[in-house]
């Protein structure tokens, strides 16, 4: 066991926990955790020890895709509940996508009131360190965005041939996931692009005075890309400003939902592939907000939107891109299983989970290639 891996493992054992345990519960819904534990380990007791032992297998794991759950919805703010996404999506993958294989790193330890350490004073950080880690003689981060970036930085420094598949949680979580990814690839001399599926641009500078949230994370990762237009967005349709505003202001490339529906996924994918080749992109990261899909397919989310993409639209675009470029990092965000805002006759949370699992399984398989 290398010294570098041992240092990474020590960090993981402090800052993460067993899969599904990242969502904060006392007694309510604890049976949900027990059900996942049975699926993963065949038992509900001594799971923490089994998870810690499993970490030793990571260096020799045949899977390039490494799953990380971040059960935080503190960076959201419309309809909450995406903190349950990691637990429920794992269960859906096990039950419905039996061919899906990845190494499960576990969940970030989440204090549900926190977002990023930069918003906290020293006294709060010290108190939270005691709560999370059991003593005050540590310098670990305490907020989900801060912990995620720190763990991912260490992961990419230790495993250059593997990638993180992140499960959220609200979309603010993609900020540390993509930032760590982009920094690592830049240090390796790789040219990257972010493929972003969403009903919303997520290009605010701040929201209600907070700069890192579900509506602004894209703005703050642009500086880590080779160029702003290496952020390519698909499915946009809920915006107070036209496409021209976002593209001219931020320099990004957008394909709105109406364009994809009208022209067809194949034509849009062909344009994207041509752009990526012209930009000499080596690898891509896919960030998928489930609300990119039309509300009939994805109602169990904080901001469901009509007139969106079908799951087939998304899979057709992703398949075409994956045939030409390695997908080496990805995430699935904003599945909120207990928050089904559908109207009578529309979809249920089971439908949202089913479609989210299909797309997640595709992305994991692409990463493993």
Task: Supply the key terms.
single chain, 369 residues, alpha/beta, Arginase, Chain A, 9-stranded mixed beta sheet, agmatinase activity
Count of helices?
12
First CA to last CA: what distance?
26 Å
What's the architecture, going by CATH?
3-Layer(aba) Sandwich
User: Strand percentage, roughly?
Assistant: 5-15%
Q: Can you identify the CATH superfamily?
A: Ureohydrolase domain
Q: Which CATH class is shown? A: Alpha Beta
Order of helices and strands: HEHHEHEHHEHEEHEHHEHEH
Tally of DSSP β-strands: 9
- Based on CA atoms alone, the radius of gyration comes out at 19 Å
Give average pLDDT, whole number: 95
Please, how many domains? 1
TL;DR?
It contains twelve helices and nine strands. By secondary structure, it is an alpha/beta fold.
Structure notes:
The protein has a single domain, classed as 3-Layer(aba) Sandwich (Arginase, Chain A). The protein is built from 12 helices and 9 strands. It has helices at 3-15, 30-41, 47-54, 85-96, 122-133, 144-158, 174-187, 243-250, 257-263, 265-278, 311-324, 349-368; strands at 16-17, 65-70, 103-108, 163-168, 192-197, 231-236, 253-256, 283-289, 327-333. The protein has a 9-stranded mixed sheet, with helices on both faces. The longest helix has 20 residues, at 349-368. Keywords: Hydrolase, Metal-binding. Its EC number is 3.5.3.11. Pfam families: Arginase. One of its GO terms (molecular function) is metal ion binding.
């Amino acid at each position: 066991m290398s010294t570098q891996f041992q240092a990474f493992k020590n960090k993981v054992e402090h800052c993460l926990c067993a899969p599904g345990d990242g969502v904060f519960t006392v007694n309510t819904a604890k049976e949900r955790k027990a059900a996942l534990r049975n699926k993963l380990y065949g038992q509900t007791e001594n799971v923490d020890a089994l998870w810690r032992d499993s970490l030793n297998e990571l260096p020799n794991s045949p899977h390039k895709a490494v799953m990380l759950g971040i059960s935080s919805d503190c960076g959201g703010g419309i309809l909450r509940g995406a903190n349950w996404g990691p637990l429920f999506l794992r269960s859906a993958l096990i039950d419905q996508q039996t061919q899906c294989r990845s190494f499960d790193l576990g969940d970030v330890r989440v204090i549900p009131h926190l977002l990023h350490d930069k918003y906290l004073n020293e006294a709060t950080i010290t108190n939270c360190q005691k709560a999370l880690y059991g003593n005050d003689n540590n310098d670990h981060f305490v907020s989900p965005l801060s912990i995620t970036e720190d763990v991912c930085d260490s992961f990419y420094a230790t495993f250059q041939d593997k990638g993180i598949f992140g499960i959220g949680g609200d979309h603010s979580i993609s900020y540390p996931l993509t930032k760590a990814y982009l920094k690592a690839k830049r240090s390796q001399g790789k040219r990257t692009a972010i493929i972003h599926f969403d009903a919303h641009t997520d290009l605010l500078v701040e929201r209600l005075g907070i700069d890192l949230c579900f509506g602004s994370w894209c703005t703050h990762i642009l500086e880590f890309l080779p160029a702003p237009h290496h952020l390519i967005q698909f499915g946009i349709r809920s915006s107070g400003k036209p496409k021209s505003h976002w593209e001219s202001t931020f320099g990004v490339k957008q394909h709105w939902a109406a364009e994809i529906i009208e022209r067809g996924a194949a034509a849009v994918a062909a344009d994207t592939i041509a752009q990526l080749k012209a930009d000499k992109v080596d690898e891509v990261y896919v960030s998928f907000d489930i609300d990119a899909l039309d509300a009939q397919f994805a109602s169990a989310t904080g901001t469901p939107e009509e007139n969106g993409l079908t799951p087939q639209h998304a899979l057709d675009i992703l398949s075409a891109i994956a045939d030409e470029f390695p997908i080496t990092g990805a995430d699935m965000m904003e599945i909120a299983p207990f928050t089904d805002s559908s109207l009578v006759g529309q979809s249920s949370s089971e439908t949202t989970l089913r479609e989210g699992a299909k797309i997640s399984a595709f992305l994991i398989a692409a990463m493993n290639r």
